[in-house]
Amino acid sequence: MPGNVHEIRPKPADTEKITINLGFVDLGQVDLMVQEGFYSNRTDFIRTAIRNQLERHADVVKQSTARKSLDLGLRNYSREDLEAARRAGEMLHINVLGLATIAQDVTPELARATIASVSVLGALHASPAVKSALADRTR
């Protein structure tokens, strides 16, 4: 690679793909709502339905988040964060509702030396080696 060209790390996705199974009648009703113009596509319908249910249960989510001491949203753990924890003699307990990211330059050894437990409701982005190293500490 020439000296003035730098490889750019791809931006992580801000959504996570899930798969659901629907009965034929439910799927037909979704398609009808799309066809009638209430929603732009199936995904729009499903996202709206999920958001409506989350709004309906917002108080329960808020109470559970507080009770379980969860970080809400996006939480990034850099190599520097983990090295600082190691220098301080601290072990981290990762509790996230949303997206937890452990930087790609974190080694499995550093992760095991500084992360006591991992509980993520949502998604955990980390290298396969780090995920494997923390498998026994992940709930």
UniProtKB/TrEMBL annotation:
<dbReference type="InterPro" id="IPR010985">
    <property type="entry name" value="Ribbon_hlx_hlx"/>
</dbReference>
<dbReference type="GO" id="GO:0006355">
    <property type="term" value="P:regulation of DNA-templated transcription"/>
</dbReference>
<dbReference type="InterPro" id="IPR041088">
    <property type="entry name" value="RHH_8"/>
</dbReference>
<dbReference type="InterPro" id="IPR013321">
    <property type="entry name" value="Arc_rbn_hlx_hlx"/>
</dbReference>
<protein>
    <recommendedName>
        <fullName>Arc/MetJ-type ribon-helix-helix transcriptional regulator</fullName>
    </recommendedName>
</protein>
<dbReference type="Pfam" id="PF17723">
    <property type="entry name" value="RHH_8"/>
</dbReference>
